[in-house]
Each structure stands twice: as structure tokens, then as C-alpha cells.
Amino acid sequence: MRTTDAPARRTPGRPPSTTHRDIERVAVALFASKGFDQTTVEDIAAAAGIGRRTLFRYFPSKNDIVWGDFDGLLDRMREHLRASPPQEPLLEALRRAVIATNDYHAAEIPEFRTRLELITTVPTLQSHSYLRYADWRAVVAEFAAERLGQAPEHLMPQAIAYAALGTALAAFRRWVQCEGTDVAEHLDLALGQLAAGFAGAGGVREPRARRRPARAR
Amino acid sequence: MRTTDAPARRTPGRPPSTTHRDIERVAVALFASKGFDQTTVEDIAAAAGIGRRTLFRYFPSKNDIVWGDFDGLLDRMREHLRASPPQEPLLEALRRAVIATNDYHAAEIPEFRTRLELITTVPTLQSHSYLRYADWRAVVAEFAAERLGQAPEHLMPQAIAYAALGTALAAFRRWVQCEGTDVAEHLDLALGQLAAGFAGAGGVREPRARRRPARAR
DNA sequence: ATAATAATGGCACCGAGTGCCGAATGGGAA
DNA sequence: TTCCCATTCGGCACTCGGTGCCATTATTAT
Lengths: 217, 217
Hints:
Structural class of chain A: mainly alpha
Oligomer: homodimer
Order of helices and strands of chain A: HHHHHHHHH
Number of helices of chain A: 9
Number of strands of chain A: 0
Shape of chain A: globular
Radius of gyration of chain A: 19 Å
């Protein structure tokens, strides 16, 4: 999808009447208040002041609206992986990269949490996530393949990519459930254990809340 | 869904005019020949000699038709895990259980392969698989939780379940791509490396074909 | 003005999935 | 045999996500 939206335009033709970001905000607000399945595409379009047809020119599906600039995140992760020191163990590099690419400012966290909560909670979005995360896996498999000297489609790079994704998902999912905790801590523990073959999993404690659960309205 | 279909019936009321198994066979045949997306539910119903509406009484969705008796597989896996010796390392028990529950007779393999090829290839089915595999993860998380003395929803049991699922999926997926190879071998290598934190992944070779690729028409 | 360009959005259509309800089909009881 | 009852069947109409088509609209360039 898009990776950018804002850059100044000086092109001929009718200018766009909205932005991805606009639609996103309107839609996520509706999802959060009415529920994902109870919100029709028409609802979103109406709330955004555009036509139903137009919405589908901005997003390929209702599901995709929730993902924000995921492609940008992938770019960042690719960059982090590329920049990792060659002597650093594979899974260690991976752990650091994942944590780094998901290091949001405090102000951005509530929105990130809302998105993630939708993705990990609503069945439709859960299943759709498999497709979106395929790109994530591809980034990891590419990196692992490079490190292992194998092709990205081979068993080990794929296994590493799938396992890393799974582990990260578990961390994200658990983080969403536990208000006031840090994503980084969850990711760190889970990916750390992955690198250890989960040998010390029995001794790992649940991360505890540090911040007061925001807006407990 | 069902786990059984065949047992003798002696109930009042109109008898069923078909079975899950019947519909499955007809549908998978159509999927294999025309492609999943090119096959409408109406096509399947017509080919099975039943009404569209009736088909949806046998399967909750078009996607689910391909999964066969997955619940039965989960039961078997649960049983294998329960039967594993307590002193056996967690991931080792998991590895053995997964391999054991996917040990098909030679005659069943082509059908299993077809199903798995559909599931891992068709986007709609790929994403739907996420939902079906949630039950698989639940079985593993339950087992891991028991072993670790933690709750199943806690981070480590979840991470193990997600990671194991991912690893198994990578193995299945790769197996489907490589004709003539053994599923067991793929699963063994991948899950073995998971237990080792992928420390020796660089030395793992791709499994090689043993059997002649069946029916190379 | 006029032409070229690009976004908009209405319309018709498809396919998956659902609620509703009358019709069909068997066994068991009168 | 006949009637009753339980249960399945399947048509109909409807909702919703998604797509192809195309006329309309709002800009910039000439």
C-alpha cells in the first residue's frame, strides 16, 4: 500500500478528497465504539464523507484499514536487520530488530494498542493478519537465509521466520491483555526464550505493570 | 465440527441425504481441478447433489470444507501429549507428538498433501487457517502450561504454542513444495532446531526426496 | 477558454453467508 | 394402514464485502 501520503503535490488532475490517515482514524474510532463487525463499509465511508467506492480505492479491504503503515514498519525492520553486526547471533539480531521497530513514543502507544487489540481480538482481522504477516516473515526469512547461506524458501530460514513471527505474536497478544505493561519487555522475554529453545521458560515471570493503566474510564 | 459421521443411526426424522465426507471429496476434487476461488459454493452443492443451503448446514463455511476431521487430529495430539513421559523435555515431547499425529498411511498421503497444498497456497484458506490453528495452539499451550506450572494464557505457554505452530507450519509448507519427501523428516528437523534455539540451523540440509514423485502426469 | 489529467462516486453485479419457513422423509404409535 | 412426529432439506430473500464500468468533477497546463 502507501508508505507515504503527505508529500506536497503539484500534479494536474482532481486532487484527492481525503487521505489514508483520515479514513483510518474515522474507521478505527467506529470499530472501537460499535465493534468491527457491526461497522459496515458504508458506515465508514459516510463518516469519512466519501463514497463507498472511493474507500476501496484507498484500502483494498475493510480489514486493511486497521494496519496503518505496515509497509513502513517492514522497511524499518529490514533496515535494522541489515545494520546488525555480522558476528551477532541470528536470533539475537532478530530480537533487537523487532524490539527496535516496535518502539513507539508514549503518545502513539494508545493508538498502537487499539489497532493491535482489534487485530488480535476480532476473528476476521485475526485471520486476515496471516496474510499481512507473510511480508513480515519474508523479511525475516530473507535475513536468516543470508546468515545461514541458504535460500530464503528453504526449511530453516522459513522455520525461523515462522517461529519468530509466532513468538512475537504471542508477546503482542499477551501485552494487549495486560494493561500498563511494556511491549518491549514482552518481546524481549519471548524472543529471548526462543533463542534459548525455551529451556528456561519455567523460570520466566509475567511482566508486571509499570504505568498506571491509562484512561480507565 | 463433527468428529464422527458414520455411526449407525436409529433416530426418528428424515435421514441425512449426504455426509461430510461426501461433500469433502466432491469439493476437494473441484478445488483441485478448477481452483478454489473459481469454484462457487453452488458448484459444490450441485456436484454433491444437495442444495446450497444444505451445504452450509454441514460446513460453517466454504473454507472449512478442506479441513476434514481436524478436531479428531487435535484429540489425537492431546492424547499423545498426555501420554508423554514427565521427564521428557517439553519441546521434545511436542516434537514427538506432532510427528506422531501426522503419521499417515501411504494411501492417505496424496489426499493429505492436496488438502495441505490448498491450505498453504490459496490466500483465502491461508488466512482462514489462522482461525483453525487457534485450537491447535490451545492444545499446546495447555500442555506447556501444565509442564511449566503456569496458566495457559501466560506469556511462555503462549509463546511456545505460537512458536511450535509456526515451526510446524514452515515444515508442512516446505514439505508440500518438495515432492517425494517425508513430512516426518521436515517436522523432525524443524522442531528439533526449535528446541535448540536454531543454534545449528546453518548445518541443516534440506530433506531429500526418497519416493519417486507420485503420478507426475 | 480549452485540453489534458486524475480522483470521485453512483450503479449494477457477484459470491459468501444467514434467517425463515414450508416441504419432504423416515420411524413409531394408534 | 394411517396418522403423528422428529428431523432434514432446500428455496427465497436479504446483508455485506468487493469489483468493473463509466460519466462527472476539479485541478493544472496551454
